[in-house]
Design goal:
By secondary structure, the protein is an alpha/beta fold. The chain contains 10 helices and 18 strands. A hairpin with a 2-residue loop joins strand 9 and strand 10.
Length: 413
C-alpha cells in the first residue's frame, strides 16, 4: 500500500528498531498508508544490541503490571502471527548477589515487583547455573523471564508490515517539515530524508518519532523541549560460545535504572543542553551480566554512561577490559571468548515510563520512544496506541504515557 494520490502518507514513522517496526505493523492493519524510515536496512539501531530480556515480573503499578500481563500473553504466539521465528523462550533469570552480601536482604529491594524472586543460597544458585564462580557470589535471586532475539523480532515485524502493504524506506531523517502556520501554532506535515547524499521531502498527515536517542536531536532542531534522554550502553558481543548457559545472569543490585533516574532528574535538565560539546552528567556504571542467545552467541555487559553527546567516543580497549574483568569474576567461562566491543545509545524518560502521544506545541508530531524495558512494554503499547488512533478513542493507559504529562501544572483557584 503506497501513499495516497496526493503523494502523502497517513503515517510516517521515523526509526525502524523495535519501537518503529512494532508500531508500523500495528498501524498498517487498519488500512492506512504507513511509511517506515530507517538509515540501516539490517541493523536496527539500539535494538540490534539489546539483551532481548522480557522482564514481565517487574511491574510495580497498575499500569506497568497490566502491560506486563499483556506482553507475556502476546510473546509466545507472536512467531506464528508474524510468520517469523522471534526465538522466544521462557528462561530463568539469575540475579547474582556478591560474596559478602545477604541474598535475603537484597531480595527486599524487589518487594514492590509483581512477581517476587526466589532466594537461592550459593549451593542452590550453582545447581541452577553450574558455570557460576562460587567464590564470587553469596547466592542469587531467581525470577521467571522471557527472552527473544532482538534482531529476529524486529525482522519479523518489518517483514509482516511489508506483507500487509507497508513501505520501508532507507534513509536518514534530517528535519521535520512544517506547514505555514505561526510559531505559536505549528503543525508537522512530513520529513526531510537524505539517502546517498540525495535529499527529498516526504509528506505525511502525521509523523511519529521512534528513533530512540536520536529523537532528542530531531526535537531540539524544532526547539521542542521534552525530557527524553539517553545513556551510552557498552557491551561485548561474542560468536557462539563453546558452553551452554542454563540461565540468564545479571547482578541483583543493578545500577542502570538508578543512573537513569538521577541523570534524568529535573536538577540535571540544564546539563543536557550541552549536547553538542558533550558533557558527562554522572560517573559511568557497570552491571556485570551475561546473556546467551538461542544460536549460542553471547552478550557481555554492560557499562552505561550518561553523556550528552550522541557522538561521544570512549576508549574501547579500556571499556572492553573492564567488562571482561567484571563478568569473568562471576562467570569464568566467559574469559576465553573473543568478541566485538559495541557502544549504542539507549533512550529513557524523566520518570522511567515511555513517551507515547502528541508532542506539545506541534500538531501532528507524535512520540513513541523512551522505553527503558522495550521487550516488555513496546508490544502492548503499540497495539493499544494503534487501536486508539484508528477508533479515535482515548485509551486510559496510553494517555498516562503522553508527553503532555510533563507540561507545567495549571494553577487552580
Amino acid at each position: 500500500m503506497g501513499p495516497h494520490k496526493d503523494d502523502k502518507y497517513d503515517w510516517i514513522l521515523v526509526g525502524g528498531g523495535l519501537c518503529g517496526a512494532a508500531l508500523a505493523y500495528e498501524l498498517i492493519q487498519y488500512g492506512d498508508s504507513v511509511l517506515l524510515i530507517d538509515p540501516n536496512p539490517t541493523s536496527p539501531g539500539a535494538t540490534r544490541y539489546s539483551y532481548g530480556g522480557i522482564a514481565y515480573w517487574a511491574g510495580t503499578s497498575e499500569l506497568t503490571q497490566t502491560l506486563c500481563h499483556e506482553a507475556i500473553a502476546r510473546h509466545p504466539q507472536l512467531s506464528d502471527e508474524l510468520e517469523f521465528d522471534t526465538q522466544f523462550q521462557q528462561r530463568s533469570l539469575l540475579l547474582t548477589v556478591e560474596a559478602g552480601q545477604d541474598p535475603a536482604a537484597i531480595a527486599t529491594r524487589y518487594e514492590s515487583f509483581m512477581i517476587q524472586p526466589e532466594v537461592l543460597s550459593r549451593t542452590e544458585a550453582l545447581e541452577r547455573e553450574p558455570l557460576l564462580n562460587p567464590e564470587a557470589i553469596a547466592g542469587a535471586l531467581c525470577l521467571p523471564h522471557g527472552h527473544v532475539s532482538p534482531l529476529a523480532l524486529v525482522t519479523g515485524y518489518r517483514r509482516a508490515f511489508e506483507r500487509l502493504g507497508g513501505i520501508t524506506k532507507i534513509g536518514q531523517v534530517t528535519d521535520i517539515l512544517q506547514d505555514g502556520r505561526s510559531a505559536e501554532n505549528r503543525r508537522a506535515c512530513g520529513v526531510q530524508v537524505t539517502e546517498d547524499r540525495i535529499s527529498e521531502r516526504i509528506l505525511g498527515d502525521r509523523v511519529i518519532l521512534c528513533a530512540g536517542a536520536w529523537t532528542r536531536r530531531l526535537l531540539k532542531q524544532q526547539n521542542l523541549s521534552i525530557p527524553l534522554y539517553f545513556t551510552h550502553a557498552e557491551l561485548i558481543e561474542t560468536p557462539p560460545a563453546p558452553f551452554e548457559m542454563q540461565t540468564l545472569v545479571m547482578p541483583a543490585v543493578q545500577q542502570r535504572f538508578a543512573l537513569e533516574a538521577e541523570a534524568g532528574s529535573p536538577t540535571q535538565a540544564q546539563d543536557w543542553e550541552s549536547d553538542q560539546t558533550g558533557q558527562t552528567i554522572l560517573a559511568p556504571i557497570l552491571d556485570a551480566g551475561l546473556v546467551q542467545f538461542a544460536d549460542g552467541h553471547c552478550c557481555l555487559g554492560q557499562i552505561s554512561r550518561a553523556q550528552t553527546s550522541l557522538t561521544f567516543q570512549t576508549n574501547a580497549t579500556e571499556s572492553s577490559q573492564h567488562i571482561r574483568e567484571a563478568v569473568g569474576r562471576v562467570l569464568p567461562c566467559s574469559k576465553p571468548l573473543t568478541g566485538q566491543w559495541i557502544s549504542t545509545c539507549v533512550a529513557f524518560s524523566q520518570d522511567g515510563l515511555p513517551l507515547v502521544g502528541e508532542v506539545p506545541n506541534m500538531e501532528n508530531l507524535l512520540l513513541f520512544s523512551g522505553f527503558s524495558s522495550p521487550f516488555v512494554y513496546v508490544l502492548p503499547v503499540a497495539q493499544r496506541f494503534a487501536k486508539a488512533m484508528y477508533k479515535k478513542q482515548n485509551d486510559a493507559l496510553v494517555t498516562q504515557l503522553s508527553p503532555q504529562r510533563f507540561l507545567p501544572k495549571r494553577k487552580t483557584d
